[in-house]
Write a structure and sequence with these properties.
There is one protein chain. This protein has helices at 5-20, 24-34, 54-76, 162-173, 193-207, 218-230, 234-242, 260-275, 296-302, 315-329, 335-344, 349-365, 372-385, 392-402, 417-433, 438-444, 450-466, 468-482, and strands spanning 38-43, 46-51, 81-86, 88-90, 96-97, 114-118, 183-186, 213-217, 246-250, 279-284, 306-309. A five-stranded parallel beta sheet has the order 8-9-10-7-11, sandwiched between helices. By secondary structure, it is of the alpha/beta class. The N and C termini lie far apart (65 Å). It is built from 18 helices and eleven strands. Bound molecules: adenosine-5'-diphosphate and magnesium ion. Magnesium ion binds next to helix 5.
Length: 483
Amino acid sequence: MTKSHKTVWNECLVIIKDILGKDPKQEKAFKTWFEPIVPVGLDDSTLTIQVPSQFYYEYIEEHYIDIIRKVIRTQLGPQGRLQYSIVMDQNISGRPFTISQPSTGSHDTQNKPKSIDININPDNDRVLPNPFIIPGIQKVKIQSQLNATYTLDNFVEGSCNRLARAAGFAVADKPGSTSFNPLLLHGGVGLGKTHLANAIGLKTKENHPDMTVLYVTSEQFLQQYAEAGKSKTINDFIHFYEMVDVLIIDDIQFWANKAPRTQEAFFHIFNYLHQKNKQIIITSDKSPADLQGLEPRLLSRLKWGLSADLQVPDVETRMAILRQKLANDGIEMPHEVIEYIAYNVNTNVRELEGALVSLIAQSSLNKKQITLDLAKQMIDKFVKSTTREITIDVIQKVVCDYFNLPIDSIQSHTRKREIVQARQLTMYFAKKMTKSSLAIIGLQCGNKDHATVLHACKTIANLVESDKQVQHWVDDIEKRFKD
Ligand code: ADP
Ligand code: MG
């Protein structure tokens, strides 16, 4: 008699739990990494399990693949295979990004999330992740991926954002039929681009419940495109985006100087949507004039509509933002404290909020009243310690500078020892210092897959322990990040 997938997985769990043992840490690991897994199918000797995100899959691969391999073999014999089915990465609002009818072309695969085949037999060639499958022409319901907390109502108005905000209202009222198409929102980090773009999406849905609104980061878009390329489903990918009524692409500067084919795909999608009077909203941390490294014809399209900038809010607006946050959280704070924060944190709204949150945390942890003195101590520390954000680009630059290599050498396919080393170090630091997934790191470091990145990270981590030279490099490079 054949067992069901549930039985098989339950038996696997029992063994895994046993292998991990009774140590509280391991018990916790079991709870975190194994309990949320849902068995979804068993086909010959392939067991399919659903994991909540790409990150889960990577984590399990990194830490538990040996155990899983053993267990699957015990349960399903030497031919046993495991297939991961991944609910698309969580978006900011915590809802999974799902498209309700991903389809491989045959009709019996509806409602299957992205699946990744893992060949657990190490003697065979590794089966590479099978990308996110995007539906064909069926009518699909697309989750908008909007963050419900970023509304227009709580986007405080000031002279720094008046035009952008007004344009947002207009677009949400008549998406696609104003001259603000595309609407390009630009401004430095932490000035509210993501918030405003989201808010416009939410308002649009409120005004036009039938419209399909989709928010994606340009990083997500790039990754999906790369995956579609590997699985030869580019047409499906493009089709998918062409079904959208309001497309929001966040942080388009991310494509600069890379991803020419992603940009080309977007160019086609853009043209299609624009021609059909669909709304396009784009954010960028650079103004169109400074957006070098984007395809010129795409750049020229971006200038067709309205480009509105977000500036650093003046002190009045900063106070209004603080007051609103406090009111939202139901917290009271003396006026002088609010003023002190608003005057002293003048870089951007994200840091302003960060300072406020730290102060509140400080006061509640130590059960101290929020006074001007406490604020002064805190804010001075806060202002000093806020460091610039480290991105994979920054890491590449620092590592290449350190070894006197041209920055594009990381992208090249050469096997030259010094470049391989630089690339591995870049991957190692990217894993350590950014929140990017292994897949994204690989993509940005010469289009490698996540397994290569994982291998690089392990190699460097081992060398740091055993090789004085490498240890010295890592220390030196780390120092440069702190400068
Ligand atoms: P960006 O995308 O430009 O880097 P975000 O949209 O992520 O910036 O904004 C950073 C933080 O500041 C968010 O928490 C956002 O809600 C808040 N914020 C920015 N501008 C405003 C504003 N005008 N009113 C209220 N909150 C704001
Ligand atoms: Mg943003």
